[in-house]
C-alpha cells in the first residue's frame, strides 16, 4: 500500500527546517543579558497585552487583529527559543560571534557532495 | 464526523416520531426568538458569557458579575444539576433531578453518564464493558458509534451528544431564569484529553440549542482559574481532577494573572462511575451469598437501579463517616439487602482505580520538566476527590496536603465563567495559555510521521517547515495530517488530508513546499501548503472535519507511552529502505542519461539487479521483509555497480569525444 502511495500519491520528503536569525531578546523587550526569570516575566507581561484572547473584546478591525496575532506569535516563538537552554546557548553563542567578528559569515562546510548517490534528505 | 451524524439523526427521526427531539423551548428563549432585535441594544456593554461545566454525572453553570464569579442555582435551588435525561411514554423529556427521581421506575429510558460514550464505537472495549452496568440499552449506530435506544416511540435512539444537548439546554435555561435575560454566549468545558471531534461535538450540541459557544476550555485548566482568582498567588499548581467519568491532571505555572499550562495528562475512562460499578458488583455478590430464591438479580433492571443508587449513596457517605449501612428492602420478592460497609473496605476494593491515576500524574510532572517537589500547590477537583483515601494518596505523592479551598463540584463552571469574562473583556487581569494534548504532524516519504507541533505546545502557535517532492516530475502533493505520538503514520490517526496540485514538474528534491500548521486560541487547526516557486497554495481546517474517537486517542496515548524499541527499529529500517529506493531512482536516472555509452549487457545486468531491489523495497514496506543487513548490502552493491557502469560510460564518452576531436583538424 505504501508503495502505491509513493507512486500514485507521492508524499513529501523533508529537507530543511527553517532557521531565521532575528533578535529574540528585542522581541521580548529585553537586553541580551536577561536571565530566564526576566524572560518569563517579560513574556507574560507582553501576553497580557497582546494575546488574541485579550484583543478579542477590543473590536479591532480584522487586518489589525491578524497583524497583532502574528506579532504575538513572533514573541511567543522568541520566548520558546530562549526558554530552551540548548537553543538559548547556541543563540547566545551566535550573537557573540557576530558581534565579535562583525558580520562574518559562519564558516560553511557545505562543500561538494561526495558522490551523487549519497542522499541524506530523509530525516 | 460526529457532528454530521448528529444532524442526520435529527432529520431522519423528524417526521416519524411524536416525541420532541429537543426539550420544549423555555419561556425566556421564546421571548428571545420573538424579539431578537433587542439584542443590539446591549452592544456597548460587554456581552455576558456564561460558563457551563457539562459533567459526566452533574453539570453546573456560572457567570461573572462585577468581577465576581458565582454559581447559578436551578429551579430546585440546587447548585448542580444531574446530567440525566429521561424520556417518558407520554412524550415528555425530563432533565436533571426530575429525571433522576424517576430513574427506578423508568430505568430503560433514563440516560446518565452518557459523556463516557461520546465519540466511542459500539465495539470499543470500554463501551462493551459499560453495557453490563448500564440500565439503558446501548446500540450500534449505522456509522459504528455507540448510541442510546429508548423503548418509547418506535424505539427512538439518540446519540450521546444529543443527550448532552438536552443537558446544555437545561443549563442555558437555569442561567436565563437567574439572569432574567437571554444567555446566548457560553464557554463549555471538556476533559483535557478530549480530541478535536469530541470538542466539536460538544460545541455543536451547544449550538443546536441556541448557544454561541465562544470557547471550549479544558476542565482542569478552568478549575485552576477558579483557584487563582481567589488566591492571587504565583507558583506551580497541579490540578488533580477526578470526576464522574474522566480523570485529568494538569500542571500550571501561575504568574501575575497569566495561567500557563505546562503539561496535561489523564485517562478519559476513569471516574466515579467506575467506583460505583465496583461497589455495585460487591453488593450483588454479597446479596447472592445470602440469597434464598434463585432469581438472577443482575437481569432485574429495577433492582440493579436501586443497588446503583444505594452504592452511590454509600460511597458518598463514606467520605464523611467511617461506617455506613447499605439497606435495600424487598430488593426481590421478600428478600432484603442490609449490611454494614466500612471505609477501609471501600478503599481496598477500589485501590486499583486509585492507583490508575498515579501513572498520568508522573507523566505530567515529567512532561513539564519538573520534580514532584517543585509543585507549590495541589488542588483537587471533581466529586471523587472527596474520598479521603484519594486525598491521602495525592498528598503522599506530592508530600503536600492538597488545598481544599476550591469546591470540587463548582470550580470548573466558575473557571469557565471567568474565561468567558476574559473573552468578553469584563475581566482584564487574567489570561489562560492552554496547550494541545497530542502531537500533530504530516506523513512523509515512506510512511514516516513528521511531527510539527509536539504535544503540550502552547496555543496559539504557528510552525512552518519546508518539504520537497520525492519523485521527478511530481506535480501534486498529498498532505496527510496525523495526530499521535508514534514514529510511523500507520500507528497514528489521520485527522485530515488535502492535495496541493498543479505544481510545475521539476526533478525531485527541487521544489520547495512550505507546510504551515496554525492553531489559534480556539484550538482550531489550519494546515496549509505553499509551493514557493509557483505560489500555488492549498489548505484545510481540521477542527471537527474528521476526528478520532476518544477511545482512539486513549489507545494512541497508551501506545505512545510504551513506544517500543521495536518501533525505533522499524523506523530505522524504513529509513534504510527509503535510502535504497533513492539509489534505485538515481541508478535508473543514470542509465537514462548515459544510455548511449552503456553496453547492452551492463544495462541488462543492472536492470536485473534493479528489479530484485525493487521487490525487496516493496516487501520491506508491506512487512514481509525485515533485514537491515540485506538492505545495507543492497545499497552498497547497487551503488558500486552503477558507479562502475557510469565510470565506464564516462570513459567511453571521453574516448568518443577524443575521436571526434582528433578527426576535426582534418
UniProtKB/TrEMBL annotation, chain B:
Molecular function via GO: ATP binding; ATP-dependent protein folding chaperone
UniProt cross-references to PROSITE patterns, sorted A to Z: HSP70_1, HSP70_2, HSP70_3
Lineage: superkingdom: Eukaryota
Entry-linked Pfam families: HSP70
Keywords: ATP-binding, Nucleotide-binding
Keyword Nucleotide-binding annotated: yes
SUPFAM superfamilies named among the record's database cross-references: Actin-like ATPase domain, Heat shock protein 70kD (HSP70), peptide-binding domain
Family: Belongs to the heat shock protein 70 family.
Name of the protein described by the UniProt record: Heat shock protein 70
Taxonomic source organism: Eeniella nana (Yeast)
